[in-house]
Amino acid sequence: MKRGWMGGLVLGLALGLALSGCGDDESDGDSVGNGTVRFTTWGEEYIEQEIPAAPPAEEGLVDGWTVKYSKFLIVFKDITVSGGGTEAARMTGSKLFDMHAAGEKDITSFEVPAKAWTSTSFVVGPADDTTQLGEGATQQDLEAMKAGGYSIHVKGSASKNGVTKTFDWQFKTKTLYRDCKAEVDGKEVHGVVVPQGGEDTVELTIHGDHFFYDDLEAATAERRFDAIACADANGDGEVTLEELEQATLLPDANATDEACKNRPVYRPGSQPVNNLRAFVTALSRTVGHYRGEGECISEKME
Q1: So what's the pLDDT on residue 58?
Q2: Which pTM was predicted?
Q3: Domain limits for position 198
Q4: Domains identified in the chain, total number
């Protein structure tokens, strides 16, 4: 499956369903009866299996590393369907998933007036007392996410030439993904189109390769791991967020390892980022996509 660049980066339960403002005079199109919009999520092969080592022309890490996730926890909340100033539906509460578990996972569904609703948004935010368990996640995962106030927790390993580095990173970020759009049957569709008596299924796709991009804004960004591996200051084989915080975006001219000495500069674009921890934290706000390769505008909330 082709995976596009991060796109849309703009920094600046029983699970209840709150169905509000279901008027049909302000959204796009005329409503005739109701239909269903169903939201699912999937982490693709990059999270379920691996991100392979690959040359620049292919889809993988260009510096020879292979990354495998063993955990990819993420919390969804505030999924909203609206259009023309009318809110058709909003998810209350939140739900935790482990995207490393195989397959597409159900988040929630709404019955709404059948028509085009041109504005869809969702939030990836910290777990709280409203958070319910989704597929793949355990009660222990949920308690840890709530206790830490985490929205994303990724754990895995990277290997190259017989060397393995592990990582176990938690993020407390809260990110709004809004104005989502994607190509459907050859046409660009904003939001959802709900058929009368039928269903529009929307996949909120999570792109696990984004954590390894070397540029926060350029479409020419490539996936790399050398800089992260070089940040393992104590040489214990685990790269922590604290170690990443001490690593600059520049190669280390004094390094004895040639890969660390000659690695490319990491480019933050216009973002106020000056170390690798801040860099991967910024990348954590770009993992959400819409219907596969579709995009949303990503806004920092916390």
Answers
A1: 80
A2: 0.90
A3: 17-206+289-300
A4: 1
